[in-house]
Every structure is written in structure tokens, then in C-alpha cells.
Write a structure and sequence with these properties.
0% strand; rod-shaped; mainly alpha
Amino acid sequence: LLKLPENHAAYSALLDKGVHSSYVRLHETYPIKSQKLLRVLQRTLSALAHWSPIFGETDYLPLLAFPFVKLFQNNQLVCFEAIATILVNWCQQWFEYFPNPPINVLNMVENLLAYHDKHLLQHLITWNITAQTYAWPLLETLFSEVLTKEEWLRLFDNVFSNHPSFLVLCVAAYAISARGPLTKCTDVGDFEYFFHHRNAVDIGAVIKEAYRLHDTTPADIHPRRVMEQFQGLTRGQYPIFNKYPTFIVDYQVKERERIREEELQYLQERQVTEELKRETERKRQQEEAWYRQQELLEEAEETRRKVIADEEHKLTEQRVRLAAMRRELRVKELQLLDAARRRFMEHQQRQKETELKRLDDEIDRKVRLREQETHAAIDDVEVKNMELHAQKGLFEQELARDEVAASFLRRADMDAHKRQQDLEDRIQHRIGVLEREREHIIRAEVQRGLARAEQQNVDTQMDLRVEQRQRLDDLDREIRMLQLAKLNAANRHVEEEVHQLMKE
């Protein structure tokens, strides 16, 4: 239907020119979620702008081209040529009053309404609603805002199958088909909303109404009278499109270039200013960060000083507690050692006392044995003495008659008594000497024991007591031996006297 030439070389030449300056910021004006769809739209619009300068200045071109871009996004050549064909044929006389809307085309729509629905047109005029409000939104978007995809495809199947003027008839048919809700609108905002959004309008009825208008419209007001027949794009190279006020477009192009250069210069200056501002801000932030860091460091230093002071205070207190604990432990240790020493000394003392008691018992036993032996010996000596005295008495009785013998005996008795007295004196002197020696020894031993007691333990005292006891035993033994010697001397004296008497 569209007779697309598929000029690959010409289309590639247009693409090689890159993105047109008018559509560099297309994403800011028309934000599209799909990046692929945005790129295809940008490339298609750039190719159209490179083909004819006016398409770089047409604000509504993205709205017009978007449904075809979305439909033919996988075949960009077909998309470009379809849009170019529509611009050449169905958009005839759109650019004669550029940059204003096509007044002549809008007048066609208004004439159609005046002929076919005067009541609706009068209602629109009453509320100051012009064709720019109810016709131009449908034309500049090619009904894409008010129809779904399926409805739009149905409509353009009929548009492409008829004369290019059929599109104008469809605009009038849409308004007539929606006359019910439109006659109830009284606010400009409601009319604008109606022609920019989808509504409950049957697209089949609109197409049917368009065909009715096509058949019943008089020739003097029929759009076909002023619009040319369909002409496809030329093969090899695309045709020249200059059906627009060139001086206005050139002026706008120059103005756009001047504005673009000024914008570039402004952007450069702004970029430099922003960089200076960022650098200043960065330095300010660095300075603030440095000051904050210094403050944090000072706070951290102060905190650490406090922590160190607290730790030193705690350490001092801990050292004091440790010293007190050491002293307490030392005192306890000394107490334990003292208690252990006392227990050991008590144990040793008990052992020594037990040993001493045993030795005392042994000494007492030996003393008793010696005393028994001594008493037995004394008893024997006394018995013998008694026997001797008895014999002496018998001899004295026998010799009583002899006075010489008696005097001799008296003299001998006196001598014996004298010797006995001397012996007793010597024994007494010896006993006194021994007693003094024993006392001296005892005192010396006691003194030595006292001196050693300060340096020695209970063992030394025990040894001293044993030694003292042995010495006492030795002294007692000597005394007994002296007594025995005295008794033996007396007995010998008596024996001598008896023998003497016997000899006489």
C-alpha cells in the first residue's frame, strides 16, 4: 500500500550522520523505559531531521513517529520510510504555517463539522473550543493517544487504503461519534482531556462515520479537493521535502544553532563553575572533615588520657590491694609457719617428754634397783657388822677379865674411833666437795642449758636433763660407794680388832 522503496544506501547515509542535535536530549523530553525503543526512536527522528531540516524543528514529530517506531522497531528502514511516506502524503499542507498548527487542515475539519453536525460545532464555538483543541491533538499523534493498539491498527488499515484526505475525515468522524459526551462538556480542561486520552468510542463506528463523510461531503468542502493523490517515495534517493516556509525554518535552525552554541558555552561555563564549586565544596568538606577528624582525634586523645588515668588509678588501687593481699598472705604464711612450728615443737616436745618420761622411768627403775642392791649390801654389811659385834661381845666377855686387854681394847677402840672419825670427816668433806661440785655442775649446766635454750630446741634440753640425771645418778652412786666404803672400813676395823683380840 505504501510502496516503500527500501533505499538501504540512502537510509544508511542518513544514519551515518549520527544523532541530530535536536534529539540529543530526547530521553529528557520523552523518558521511555525501554532503552532499545528509545534508541530506535532517536535514530529514526535523527534520520528524518537529516532528510529535511524542518523535522528537526517539529516538536510533535516524536508523538507522530512513536507508534510506527513501536510497531516496526525490528525493521528500522521500514519504520523510517513508513513515517516519511505519511509525512509526504497524509501530512500535506501541515507545514505551510509552521511553526503554527496547519490552519488550513484544521479549517477542513471545522467545515466538515459545520456541514455534518452544526449543533456540535455550535456547542464547541459556544465554549471557545477551536479546532486546535479537538482536531490537532488527534492529527499530531495520529490517534495514538486515544486508541488502543488494535483500534489504531484497524483505523490505519483504512487510512492507508484510501486517499490521504481520509485521515482528515477520520478526525471529523471521531468528533461526531463522540458528540454525546462532548455536548455535555463545558470546561476547556475537559475537552483537552477528552482528546488526549482514551474514551469509550467505538472505532468501528468512527470508521463507518468516516466513510459516510467521505461519500456525503460536497466537493467544494471535501478535503480531497485540496489534497494531492498518494505519491510514494522515489527509489535510490529520497525526494526533497521543502513544503514549508524555508526562511522560518532556516531562522529557527540558525536560532537553534545559536542557542545550542550558547547552551554549549553556558554548559562549559557551568561545568567550569560546577567543577570550581565541586572543588571548593570538596576542599570545604576536606577541611571540615579534617577539623572533624582533629576534633575526633582530640576527643579520642582526651578519652584515652582519661582511660589511661583511670587505668593508672585502677592499677594503683590494684597494686595497693595486691600489697595488702601480699601482706595478708605473708601474715597468714607466717601464722601458718608459726602454727606449724608450734605444732612441730609441741609434737617434738611431746615426743621428748615421752622419751624423757621413758628415760625417767628407766632411771627410776635403775635407781630402785641400785637402791635395792645398796640396801641389800648395807643389810649384808649390817648383818655382818652385827655378827662381828656379837663376836666382839663374846670376845670382850672372854677378855673382860684381862684389864690389859681391856685397856688395850679401849685404846684400840679410841684409835679406831679416831680413825673412824677421821674417815667420817674425810667422807663428809668428800661428800661436801661432791655436793658443791654437783651444785656447781648443776648451776653450770643450768646456765649452759639456759644459754643454749635460746638457740637450741627441745632436744638440747632433753639431752641436758638426761645428762644431769646421769650425773646425779653418778653422784648418788659415789655417795653410796663412800657409805659402803665407810661401812667396809668399819667392818675391817672391827675384823682387825677381832683378829687382834683373837691373837691376844
